[in-house]
Amino acid sequence: MAVAVLFEPVEFVRENFDVLLAGLERTLLVSAIAMVGAFFIGAVLGAARAHRVPVVSQLAAVYVEVIRNTPILVQIFMLFFALPQIGITLTPFTVAWLSVMVWGGAFNTENFRAGFEAVPHRYREAALALGFGRVRAFLNVTLPIGGRIALPSSINTYIAVLKNTALLYVISYPELTKTAYDINASTLQTLETFFVLGVVYLALVWALSVLIRLLESHLALPEQA
Amino acid sequence: MPMLFALPEWVEPTARYMFEVGLPGTLRIAAFSLVASAVVGVVLGTLLTIRFLPSRALIRLYVEVWRGLPIIVTIFIVFFVFPVAGRQFEFDPFTSATIGLSLWGSAQIAEATRGAVQSIPREQHEAAAALGFGWFGRHVFVILPQALRRLLPPVVSLLVGIIQNTTLASVIGASELLTTGKQQVERITSPPPAGIGEIHAIEIYGAVMVVFFLISFPLTRLAIFLERRLV
After folding, report:
1. What is the mean pLDDT of chain A?
2. Could you list the residue range(s) of the whole structural domain that residue B65 is in?
3. 3-state SS, one letter per residue, for B64-124
4. B209 vs A74: CB contact, 8 Å cut-off?
5. Mean pLDDT computed over A162-188
6. Which residue has the higher pLDDT, B4 or B6?
7. Does the beta-carbon distance from B81 to A190 stay under 8 Å?
8. What is the mean pLDDT of residues B74-101?
9. What's the domain count of chain B?
């Protein structure tokens, strides 16, 4: 039987604007913290992997494999529901940024490792010959060049980090998805709720992808352009 | 029973429940999603190479939407929004999770297929056409068999992604490994006779992680190996 379904997304947004905006802000805040953290984790551990720094390199390899080969949802469960068993109780906010940051850091370690390893050896040798120390050679030569080689894959990781924040629904952290879920439960405006939720995520993800393309052409190495 | 060390009493029934109820659920969702993703993805990806604007725009939209949305949101859409369109679109949690994962997976495969089909040299199309194949025969008998080789590494990677994302079925209550693990943690925590009033979340979620690692790790290695060999 055909029942006229009222579909008023604009009205819906107007009525729930403050709540939705608060959810969006939390999603963006958690994503931003996690992205910045994942960048540093990736750069440091990626360098350790690429330059085969003893011990650190092996530990980083274990970290990467464990995170990549287990579901992030179980990782979130571990941090939030299991750690209290040994007396470590984290707030939902801490688990929120920590879980997606640790996840993104593992993928970024691989991205940066591949990027650093793709930097021709002669560049580093040239830097060492010019009297740069090992650290300075890394910071001034390997990082800027390898970081750009790693840019496309690491940006995909940042987009995945943003999308993974939706999983924080399971620990009731009021980010966008949890917010929308609750609005749906109280208003029963299912169509509007998930339409708006989907549009916001697609807008964020698509905007980020476009930004990346621009950034990519802007930062492309001269020889690749 | 001769054992080196005795396992606590709660372990045996918990493990049996998770392996007999949870793990098969996980594997079933993964298997159905993989097959659906592969079939729909290869078809859409091949159609995406046709230079007919309306069909290309539609498939592009499909790919970008289901690839862009977080999978948990896709599963919510299937589970909560589809029924709005009618009773025949009302699915149980197991089916909803499978459909959600398939939408995401088919979008991934479609994109990979497009790349693989377009990487086959033009001469192959021309040779097939010269032999009298039409568009359909050309693609089914000549182009796709060659493209599938290049598709193998992304499909194995997708399988890892699908297996790990089956855990998302737990948010809508479908029975899979993480769901059963969660149920067991809660059961054991409750006072006797149902439980024993102890928390064993680390052991149980740890076991879930180990199981997923044992399944995923060989597959990730395989994907890397195939990538090196086939590219």
Report:
1. 89
2. 11-230
3. HHHHHCCHHHHHHHHHHHHHHHCHHHCCCHHHHHHHHHHHHHHHHHHHHHHHHHHCCCHHH
4. yes
5. 92
6. B6
7. yes
8. 91
9. 1
- Specify the pLDDT at position B20: 83
Q: Is residue B34 part of a domain?
A: yes
Partner-chain contact B201 A181, CB within 8 Å:
no
CATH of the domain at A154: 1.10.3720.10
Which of the residues B62, B71, B81, B179 would you substitute to probe the A interface, choosing the one with the greatest number of A C-beta atoms within 10 Å?
B81
B-chain residues near A206 (CB < 8 A): 64, 68
In a domain, residue A55? The reply is yes
Q: Which residues of A touch B182 (CB under 8 A)?
A: 77
Q: For residues A197 and A181, what is the distance between their CA atoms, to the nearest angstrom?
A: 9
Under 8 Å between Cβ of A208 and A159: yes
In a domain, B4, yes or no: no
Cα gap B73→A198, rounded to integer Å: 7
Confidence of residue A222 (pLDDT cuts 50, 70, 90): low
B170 within a domain of the structure (yes/no): yes
Q: Which of B205, B212, B219, B222 to mutate to test the interface with A (most CBs of A within 10 A)?
A: B205
**B199 in reach of chain A (CB within 8 A):** yes
**A5 pLDDT band (50/70/90 cuts)?**
low
Please check whether residue A1 lies inside any domain of the structure: no
- Prediction pTM value: 0.89
DSSP-assigned letter for residue B21: I
Surface-to-core class of residue A34, CB atoms within 10 Å of its CB (0-12 exposed, 13-18 middle, 19+ buried): buried
Nearest-by-CA chain B residue for A156: B68
Partner residue opposite A191 with nearest CB, options B84, B204, B206: B84
Task: Return the CATH number at B90.
Answer: 1.10.3720.10
B165 close contact with A: CB closer than 8 A: yes
Percent of all residues in chain B with a pLDDT value above 90, rounded to a whole number:
44
Domain for residue B6, yes or no? Answer: no
